[in-house]
Specification:
With 146 residues, this protein is α/β, with parallel strands linked by helices. The chain contains 6 helices and 5 strands. Helix 4 links the parallel strand 4 and strand 5.
């Protein structure tokens, strides 16, 4: 499995439809996608899916993940409880870019009830295409982890 071309994705019921569209978008772009669920728009506990994705990134099975819920707030809170996870809730292109450049975010979090499809695709693509700058930013990330 090529970790640079593999991504794990998960959502709750509120963002199920957007997750499915993003999953198709990623596959069409040549990514290998593991879907951590949910598998329908039936009501579920977002925490369960946040833990699956954040756990897989935290333990190194995946270098990147995407989480979605209604606003993205709950998934952000869950994911950032995990060691070595830097989850960034983004709803604009500049934030998506900077979350990678300065913060080396390894989970992108999106709000399914906040974003339209085209903006969501643009956020995903920007986030995936942007490299971490390192340098003084690496020192800051290391100080968070310590």
């Amino acid at each position: 499995m090529d970790k640079d071309r593999s991504i794990i994705i998960g959502s709750d019921h509120a963002a199920y439809e957007l997750k499915e569209k993003i999953k198709t978008y990623l596959i069409d772009k040549g990514y290998q996608v593991e879907d951590a669920g949910t598998k329908s728009n039936a009501s579920v506990n977002y925490v369960d899916y946040g833990k699956k994705v954040a756990g897989a990134v935290s333990d190194g099975r995946f270098s990147k993940g995407i989480l979605l819920c209604g606003t993205g707030l709950g998934m952000s809170m869950v994911a950032n409880r995990f060691v070595n996870v830097r989850a960034a809730l983004c709803s604009d292109i500049f934030s998506a870019k900077m979350s990678r450049v300065h913060n080396d975010a390894n989970i992108l979090v999106l709000g399914g009830r906040i974003l339209g499809d085209m903006l969501a695709f643009a956020l995903v693509q920007t986030w995936l295409d942007t490299e971490f700058e390192g340098g003084r930013h690496l020192e800051r990330i290391q100080s968070i982890d310590n």
